[in-house]
UniProtKB/TrEMBL annotation:
Domain spans labelled Acyl-CoA dehydrogenase/oxidase C-terminal: 238-377
Keywords for this protein: FAD, Flavoprotein, Oxidoreductase
Domain Acyl-CoA oxidase/dehydrogenase middle stretches: 125-219
Needed co-factor(s): FAD
Organism of derivation: Desulfofundulus australicus DSM 11792
Domain Acyl-CoA dehydrogenase/oxidase N-terminal intervals: 7-118
Name this polypeptide is given: Acyl-CoA dehydrogenase
Flavoprotein found in the keyword field: yes
Record bears the keyword Nucleotide-binding: no
Similarity remark: Belongs to the acyl-CoA dehydrogenase family.
GO molecular function: acyl-CoA dehydrogenase activity; flavin adenine dinucleotide binding
Length: 380
């Protein structure tokens, strides 16, 4: 039976996080956006670490909150509405922890997961994308070679959120260049491992709080116990991580969309033109009405996907639908909000201008919109 009523615990969490966003996170979001990508400031992450919300999906036995995906989506919607960059930081932590939770050894779980549950902020990174391998994972060029009981890794990963400040990196690489998917290996790389180097800082259009870098692996050596599973098992693990993560990306999109919608609605009711609020024009009010329906539809798709994930039912299509709908809602809401606000919304430093820049990344990450369509089409 599907129940749309939140539990008492979920309602309390939403209230607490919404208050935190309103009082501390949202007011700081503009400052971090203007500061750019060069340095990472842990202060916003610390606000979440204080309540053990930086990686909320970590099970309780490893010190985590043990939140299910439905509740995590509620959290990420609130963070997306206040600071999408912070939401991206949390999502990167979740992605980095997910393979360890799903397939790690007991030693790996007790070594790495508790790091992300401390009251002082610790971050992790998920390293997959390469210059030559975005949507086409099979074009991956990084390579791990077995040598005397150790793995030796060479290559580069790009667009790695948290990569420059991570306590550990969850790395996906190939062990055979002729069969990338079939030979894929997942490795946990602790901070400070010789051969792990931080490359260029990526200066982004939006989500600037999420520090994003290139990572270089130069003859990096790891003992076999750093491998999560064996060669060839990591592709399935990657797909499981992606299928779960796409629903959460959709939740961030819903948060951005909601923030843009609420700003535009209030502005349209207060802005007087030709002697009446611009909301009195059906061209504005009808557009907002339609947008409201689209945001609600995206939210329900996110909820359905997370409901399926939490019950370990078939969630692949639902998660892609949620991601596609959430991304579109965010971009459409921010664009409409800018149109309603006019020239004011186009100015640097205006909230609507930031919402639009933040929203534009969503159709690109976790699989592009066309990748989501391909996934959905393959399952029809």
């Amino acid at each position: 039976m599907v129940d749309f009523a939140l539990t008492r615990e979920q309602s309390l969490l939403v209230e607490e996080v919404r208050a935190l966003v309103r009082e501390k996170i949202a007011p700081a979001a503009h400052r971090f956006d203007r500061a750019g990508d060069e340095e990472f400031d842990f202060s916003l992450a610390a606000l979440l670490a204080r309540d053990n919300l930086l990686t909320p999906t970590i099970p309780r036995e490893y010190g985590g909150r043990g939140l299910d995906y439905f509740t995590t989506a509620l959290l990420l919607e609130e963070l997306g509405a206040g600071c999408a960059g912070l939401a991206a930081v949390v999502t990167a932590n979740i992605h980095a922890a997910s393979p360890i939770i799903l397939a790690g050894t007991p030693e790996q779980k007790y070594t790495y997961l508790p790091l992300l549950t401390r009251s002082t902020p610790h971050l992790a990174a998920f390293a997959l994308t390469e210059k030559s391998a975005g949507s086409d994972i099979g074009a991956m060029e990084s390579l791990a070679v077995a040598r005397e009981g150790r793995w030796v890794v060479n290559g580069a990963k790009d667009y790695v959120i948290n990569g420059g400040v991570a306590s550990f990196v969850t790395l996906f690489t190939a062990t055979s260049p002729r069969n990338v998917r079939g030979s894929m290996l997942c490795l946990v790389v602790p901070q400070g491992t010789p051969g792990l180097k931080v490359g260029a800082v990526r200066r982004k259009m939006g989500i600037r709080y999420a520090h994003t870098v290139q990572l270089l692996f130069e003859n990096l050596e790891l003992a076999e116990e750093h491998a999560i599973g064996g060669p060839g098992s990591a592709y399935l693990l990657l797909m499981q991580t992606f299928d779960r993560g796409r629903a959460l990306a959709g939740a961030i999109g819903v948060g951005i969309a909601r923030a843009a919608f609420e700003y535009a609605l209030q502005y349209s009711r207060e802005r007087i033109q030709f002697g009446r609020p611009v909301y009195a024009n059906q061209g504005v009010s009808f557009a907002l009405a339609e947008l409201s329906a689209r945001i609600e539809a995206a939210r329900l798709l996110v909820w359905k996907a997370c409901w399926l994930i939490d019950r370990d039912l078939d969630y692949t299509m639902a998660s892609s639908m949620a991601k596609l709908a959430g991304s579109r809602a965010a971009v459409e809401a921010a664009a409409l909000a800018m149109e309603i606000c006019g020239g004011e919304g186009y100015l640097q430093g205006h909230p609507v201008e930031r919402y639009l820049r933040d929203a534009r990344v969503l159709p690109l990450i976790e699989g592009t919109d066309n990748v989501q369509k391909a996934v959905i089409a393959s399952l029809l």
